[in-house]
Structures are given as structure tokens and as C-alpha cells.
Amino acid sequence: MMNQDTIAAIATAVGEGGIAVIRVSGPGAVSESAKIFRSKSNIADASSHTVHYGHIVDPQTDEKVEEILLTVMRGPRSFTAEDVVELSTHGGVVAVKRVLELLLRQGGVRIAEPGEFTKRAFLNGRIDLAQAEAVIDLIRSKSDRAFSVAMKQAEGTLSKRVKALRHNLVELLAHIEVNIDYPEHDVAEMTSSYIREKSEEAVAEIDRLLKTASEGKILREGITTAIVGRPNVGKSSLLNALVQENKAIVTDIAGTTRDVIEEFVTLGGIPLRLLDTAGIRETTDVVEQIGVERSRAALTDADLILFVVNAAEPLQADDYKLIEQLGGRPVIVLLNKTDLPVVADTEELAARFKPESIVRLSVLQEQGLDQLEKVIADMFFGGELESADLTYVSNVRHIGLLHQAKQSLIDGMEATASGIPIDLVQIDVRTAWEQLGEVIGDSVAESLIDQIFSQFCLGK
Question: How many helices and strands, by DSSP H and E, does the chain display?
Fold first, then answer.
């Protein structure tokens, strides 16, 4: 499904750096680049996967614009399965923009749309849709573990399991089809028990994939974690300690934090989207009131709440109000300032929350943060992450389609048990097969493909 257009875009982040790369893909990638590239070698005849030193020259003025390395990759042995040229210029905004503008000025190349290189790799059959979506997960990874999960999906581990599932369903559909067309032949003893057996095997495999969905989604998107507590208990100090940077202003003045501050941090391989909130209390300060309302909203949306208590002071009315609001939520109580004599009613906290979710720490002395890591891992991953060889399902679209395919198979089994003719049962099995096909892009609407790739950055 080769494209006729030749496209180009800057593939590296814009800004100062050692080098910048312009990626060109399409049938005219080599010939169009040759119009502005001067070297001792003729790149029009260059072999695939070769690098050439030379200069970018303006054909109209013969002015040398830039000194570059040009890499030629002939299709289908390239990322897009088309002819690809990469122009490596000096880093910086001016150099790379001048080269790209000169290339586009020749008339045979257009600027690429977001994600168009990866989209072409998918359309040309080099990767399937699940692998293509893993590319954006690689770019957005917030932790080493999330990167490893995305890398495995990009290599096709999830796709292989989905394809195996679809292959088994195709065999079941074939048996049903033969039994419908030739009822006089009891082919493979096509009975209700046979349909149930094969469907149960498929459902069991889908369940094995879905078992990792919550962990995979966390690794992909991070745990939205709200740091809450009354004013001046050490919330902002905790954020700074976790981020290892002075992101939030810390003073002895209550109400210093007026808005929700957001940062990403990784604890023990688990990505956390930290929300440092304004101290929740009754106040007449109009600006602080807005911050408190935003804190309450963050409290509602959070997957995990870090409830910070000043251990060196008795529990106060604002603490008790928060305790009432946190009932039934995933909460870790952080007894901060334990380097001082502990005065807070720890028995009261132990009665209100699970004892294993109460962590003693001193942000000032950087003590107890390792225990916090352990408690988070216990809460979300049963103490530790699964084996590195496990295929995680992390994409919300994939999770939804797997649930739909599972339900279609369950509907088919229930229809079989009710004595419904197998030609109607076949509809449910085929629906499950098609839903699994949407995961890898074998059966998916063009509008969805456009929507998926529009989320990519330019040059990818």
C-alpha cells in the first residue's frame, strides 16, 4: 500500500543539541534529497543503509547552507517500508529549519502530518496497529518498566497472542461453517459441547491477558496520586523530596500552596502522577478558597491519596474532617516529622485506616521514603511487579476490545446452551474474531486509524 507522496519532518526535538535529524520518506526521498545535497558520491545510486558526507546547497544560488551526514535506507528495509533518507544536521533551531525549508521548496516533498511515518509503516504492513500504538507509548514512557512494556508490545508480543486467538476462532468458525453447509456430515462432531469447549479456551486466554490490564494501565499512564492534608504538615516538602527538586515553595506560613502542582515521579519502577494540593481547611482568603476547592477536586479524581499528618502535633479538626472524607478510598497515611516526639493519636489513625497503610517518615531527614515505595507496590502490585516476560495489556482501546470479545464469546456459549441454531451462534464467534482483529488493525475503521496517529508527534 505504498504512498505516492514524499513526506519530510524534523524527527528530533527542536532546540539546542549536538545534531538534528530530518526524516524523508516516500518514492522521491532519494531523488528529492539529491537536488540539494552535494557530495563526492552520487546518492541516486547509493546502496541501502549507507551514510554519505557532504553539504546542503541551495540550487538557485549555489550557496552552502549546511554540512551534514545523509543516510539512505531503501524500502522495504526501512521503518516505513519505503525509501527513507535521514539528514543529520548540526543541532539548533536555525540550521535544521533552513535545510527543511530548502528541501520543501523544491516542490516534490510535503511536510509530514503527525504520526505519518508510523502510519505508513502500518499501512505498508511492516507493523500492525498494536505495534504502532506501542511506539507512542515508548515516547511517553515515564519509567523504565513502562518503557520495557511498550518495547515488548512494539516487538509484537501482544500481537502474537491476539493472532493466535484469532487463528483458533477461525478454526472454530470453519467447523461451524462446514456443519451448516453439510449437515449430513457430522464434521468433527460439531456439537454444543465442542463450541463451548473452544469458546471457553478463548475466554480463558483473554482473561489471562486482562489480568495484567490494571497493572499495564498504571505502568502506561501512572497512578494519579493526590498529596493531601491540612496546611503546613509537609505536603510540598514531600513533593520536593520525591521529585528531588524544589518544585513547590516551602515556608512555615500556612496556606503557602495556593494551587495544585503536578509532577511525574517513579518510585520503585512505578510511575506516579503527583498532585501537591493546597492545604484543605476552612479559610476566608478568596484565593486560598479556590486552591482548597481544586484540592477537593483532585482528591475526588485521584487513584491514590497520600494523607500527610504532622506527627509532632495532636490531630486537629481539619485532620478529622479529612479522615471522614477519605473513608473507602485507597489511602496511605504518612506520619511526617517523626524525627520529633510523636504526639499525634496513632491509635486513632490505626483504627480508621489499615495499619499496613500507615508509614512513619521524616521528609526533613529523608527517612521512610523507601517504606512508602514498598507500601505502594503492595497496594497496586501485590508486593512486586510481575515477571519481565509477562505480556502486559496497557492500552485502554485494547482492554475495551478484549472485554467486548470475551462478552461475545460468552453470548455465543449462552446461545448454544439455550439450543439456538449454530448459524446464529456463528455470529457471536465471528464478532469476537472481528473485535480481536481491531486490536491489531486487521479490521478497523479508517477514521479510528486517523484518530490514533493524530496523537503522535511530528516526525514520528
Answer: 16, 13
